[in-house]
Amino acid sequence: MELKKTVGEPAFDNIVDFLNDCAKEWDEFDNLDVLYNVILQNYNNKLSLLLNIKKDLNLNLTSKELLIKTKTLPNIIGKVPYNIVKKLEGEQYEYLKEYIRFERCE
Asked: Which of 32, 59, 68, 104 could crosslink 78 through cysteines, CB 3.0-4.6 Å?
């Protein structure tokens, strides 16, 4: 609160916003080398949906391997880097939230 009095409220708010942005960018930088498990929760028996998931996540497995993994759900169908997880936050990938989730690998 002393800083707020010293620099004034508008400048203080700018400093707080700047520090919050720095923290967010650091978190993203810190996550660059992290892998996430892709967990398929359901797919409603739609093969086209599975192919879209495989393509959108750039998964390195054959269609046959993916089908085998769907026999028991939920199931880990692959690993993806943080940049893929971040990319999937876009509106065009909203449909994926119903079918998959990500879990950070330890």
From this structure: 59
Specify which residues 104 forms β-bridges with.
Answer: 36
Starting at the edge strand found earlier in the chain, the sheet holding 75-81 runs 75-81, 35-40, 100-104
Taking the C-alpha atoms of residue 50 and residue 72, their distance in angstroms, rounded to an integer, is: 14
Of the ranges 3-7, 10-14, 30-34, 66-70, which is most confident?
A: 66-70
For the entire predicted model, the pTM comes to 0.68
The predicted-structure confidence for 38-83, as pLDDT tens digits, reads as follows 999 998 888 999 999 999 999 999 989 999 999 999 999 999 998 8
